[in-house]
Amino acid sequence: MWWMNEERQMIAAAAREFAEQEVRPAAKLMEEEEKYPEAAIRKLGELGMLGLTIKEEYGGAGADYVNYGLMIEELAKESHGFGLLAYLASELTLGLIEKMGTPEQVKDLIAKGLTGEKIYGICFTEPCGVGNPMEYETRAVLDGDEWVINGGKIFITNADIADTFFVIAKTSDYNPATMTGLTFFVVPSDTPGLTVGHIENKLGWKGSHTGQLYFKDVRIPKDAIIGAVDNAWLPLNVALLPMFATYGPMNLGAMETIFQKTLVFLKSRVQCGVSLWDAHESIRIDMMKMFLKIDNYRSAVYSALEDENRGENISAKAVALKMQGADLLEEIASQCIELHGGTGTVYETGIERFYRDAKMGTVGCGSNRTLINSLASMIFQ
Amino acid sequence: MKIAVCIKSVPDPDCYDKITLDPVNKTLNRAGIPAVINVADKHAIEAALQLKEEYGGSITVVSMGPPPVEQQLREALAMGADDAYLLSDRKVGGADTLATSYAVSKLIEQTGPYDIILAGNESADGATSHVPAQIAEWMGLGCICSALSIRVEDGKAIVTKKFENGTGTFRLGLPCVIAVNQRINKVRLTNMMAVLKAKKKPLTVFSAADITGLDESRVGLAGSPTQNGELHMAESTKVCTMLEGTEEEAAAMILEKIKPLLKA
Fold first, then answer.
1. What are the chain A neighbours of B78 within 8 Å (beta carbons)?
2. Which CATH class is domain A241-380?
3. Segment among A356-360, B36-40, B225-229 with least mean pLDDT
4. Per-residue CA distances from B74 to A49, A56, B199, B200 (Å)
5. Does some domain include residue B108?
6. CA separation, residue A374 to residues A93, A131, A377 (Å)
7. What is the mean pLDDT of residues A135-155?
8. Is B7 exposed, middle or buried (0-12, 13-18, 19+ CB in 10 A)?
9. pLDDT over threshold 80, residue B149
10. Of A8, A47, A52, which to mutate for an interface test with B (greatest number of B Cβ within 10 Å)?
11. What is the pLDDT of residue A332?
12. In CATH, what number is assigned to the domain containing residue B97?
């Protein structure tokens, strides 16, 4: 593969070793007990795997985005949900502070995030819908040297886990033409007035704690904002949207696991003295079609990450990778379960959970139906 | 404390089922099989890291093989070694364990001196366990194989060794050669920062001509008294028979099957 070199092979091998030793047992507890993989996430920090792309001057490894993608791919081979949590604990939140934070925020938040000492969460969605900021009800009002936040958020990942949340709230009426009126705030989870509500029992991404947050007269310092007042869309566009590309290697890792497990099953499942693989041309054709789709997706993923390395704006590509990958993962998982027959629906076979996670991918962090509309705007307007 | 660790690049044991035999040349066809650091050698690197943490010093990894072995040396540097040396030359190719140990001992002499020379107890491919003891013999040093623990006291290495029916503890003068058993430790996970820094660590490649005092008649195929004989792929003729019926019926059937063997 054109994007691989000696260093990247070592990065992938180190991540694979971590995934097999740490993520595999953690994933079992995530699925069976809805347990957040705290020890494994913090161990990522100990091994320099949180904030891999964060600049060395900020304490990161200063690696490029392909190296980061290879790491996420290996983690997601064991658990798509763990890949998501690693992304949230690293490039999504730390990348936001790196690109848009003040020097003080960089020093404090990044340093603690890199080691896994602190875990962060991002709060967007409200009952009116994530893509409907006009009707967001969470508001922040300046009172002397403090912002006072009131409102509520839903579907917040790490709701009862995060040490600090990065919260979007209205600071003036939202203007859709200029996309102004929203501000990003830094809110420690132990701030008086901030309470955690119901944690959802979701279809997939088990072990990622997704829940509600309530803000009642939550007071934070005036300077606890990311970027400028009324301009949350700048951090969103500069830091968050490009990192949607992370869903690429996440989806890819999950697809590869499902495909490999299915291939092994088809070659070892013998009926009337012949393996299913040898007996059925149609099965070989189905598998080959899937292989080619995964291979094409892999090329698109690492091509986009190389573009990111070159400093190109990959926001549109990143959104497309998230959408296409989620759909493709669902398709692959569905087909592989069918090729297994009843065995594929059994938890212990290790495939059906990827199918559930695939469906989460089509609706989580911006549903495909919302994102495709945004993508049309990004490309054609 | 200066520590040298001998490592060997071997075909990935996870891919052994993909290795085939060239029926004409009687060699293993390793095309497409990834190379990795021999597993026991990784435990030797971990042992070196623990000794360095305890007593300070430096870790040098050495190996012999074709240029792609640089990749495995880089991996060793990523694990925490400080520098690396590779002896790579067609003249040393095709070596048996005697010629290998001679060439590696010369490489160690050239890059040393070292206080402790570590190696894995055996390689995953050859599995002779010859090389560590032979290196010690060439260098005139004491040697312990199958080490389960190592510490240093009063300038001596205190090494516990595994025997077939137990363990024994030995005191060796430094420098010495120690081949480690895989049970000696758990190899730590690799730090990503260390991977990225590995490319900046020194890795030197020597040819045979670069090694002072190397007797070329003792290296490579020419210096190897042992040669491969006929090689054959093992054929599995085992057949699994499924016994049906109740547990008691199946137990009776098993008994019938093994009775003739017991008599024999």
1. 10, 14
2. mainly alpha
3. B225-229
4. 19, 21, 7, 10
5. yes
6. 22, 9, 5
7. 96
8. buried
9. yes
10. A47
11. 97
12. 3.40.50.620
Interface test with A, best of B46, B195, B203, B242 (most A CBs within 10 A): B195
Give the pLDDT confidence score for residue B28 in this predicted structure: 72
Give the residue from chain A lying closest to B76, CA to CA. Answer: A10
The CATH homologous superfamily to which domain A6-118 belongs is Acyl-CoA dehydrogenase/oxidase, N-terminal domain (1.10.540.10)
- Residue in chain A closest to B35 (alpha carbons) equals A9
Do residues B195 and A7 touch, judged by C-beta distance below 8 A?
A: yes
Q: Which two tokens stand for residue B10?
A: 């071997």
Segment among A71-80, B92-101, B130-139 with least mean pLDDT: B92-101
Q: What does the block give as tokens for B240?
A: 């699994």
pLDDT(B23) > 80: no
Which architecture characterizes domain A121-230 according to CATH?
Beta Barrel (2.40)
Which residue has 């999950």 as its token pair? Answer: A254
Q: Say how far apart CA B26 and CA A13 lie, in whole Å.
A: 32
Read off the pLDDT of each residue in A17-29 and give the average, rounded to a whole number. 96
Domain containing residue B24? 2-218
In chain B, how many domains are there? 1
A247 close to B (CB below 8 A): no
